[in-house]
Amino acid sequence: MQVILLGVDDNFVPPTQPRVPGRIMAMASADAPMKGIGTLLEAFAKLRVERDVELVLVTSPKRGGRTEKLIDKLGIADSVRFASGLTDDELVALMGSAEVACVPSLYEGFSLPTAELMACATPLVVSRAGAIPEVVGPDGECADQVTPGDVGELYAALERMLDDPERRARMGAAGRRRVEELFSWRAVAQKVAAAYQSVIDDFEEERARADR
After folding, report:
1. Is residue 131 in some structural domain?
2. Is there a domain that residue 52 lies in?
3. Tens digit of pLDDT for each residue in 122-180?
4. Residues contacting 24, CB < 8 A, separation 6+
5. Is the distance from CB of 185 to CB of 7 less than 8 angstroms?
6. CATH number, domain with residue 121
7. Mean pLDDT, residues 25-52
8. Which residues pair with 126 in a beta bridge?
9. At 35, is the secondary structure helix, strand, or coil?
C-alpha cells in the first residue's frame, strides 16, 4: 500500500494585488468545537485590543450558535465577518488577501485548505494537531505551529507574524514551493506513475524468476 496525498488545483496561486493590512482568515465549520474556532476568537480578541485587525471566517455559522455567542461575549462583532457560498475564484482572492491565515483545529485528517492557502503564498499559524504538521512541514518553515487549544500561544504566534512582513513573505514563498513539490497535480501524477511502475517492475522481476 502506498499513500499519495491530494493535489491542489492550479487556480490557487499567489495574489497579484496587495494583501489587506491586519487581515487574518480561517476556514472552518464555525460551530464544530474540533475546528478550534473558539481558541482563535479568544486569541483574536486579545490582538484586537492592541491593533487594527480583522478576522474573516470562511463558514456559515449557526444562528445563535456557540460561535456567535462567543463573538458577542468577547465584544468583537465589529471586527469579525463571515464569508460563505464563495466561488473558487472568490476563495482564491480571499486567501490571497490575508496577511496571515490560521488553522486552529484540535484535529485534522489532512486539511486540503491548508495546502490551498500555502499555494496562495499565505503564511500560516497552525495547530500541531493531526496531519497538519505533515502538510506544512517543519515548524517555522511555511507555518508556525502552536499547541492545540492554547489561546496564549496562538495569540503570541499571530502577533509575531503580523509584526514581521519579511518573515511573512519568506514563509509564504516557502509554502508555495512546498505545494509545487508535493501537492501540485503534476507531483501527484508523478507519484501515481511511479507507483504503477514499481508494481510493473516487481511483476517483471517475479516473471523473470519464474522463467529461470
Report:
1. yes
2. yes
3. 999 999 999 999 999 999 999 999 999 999 999 999 999 999 999 999 999 999 999 99
4. 44, 47, 53, 54, 55, 56, 98, 99, 100, 101, 102, 158, 162
5. yes
6. 3.40.50.2000
7. 91
8. 103, 145
9. helix
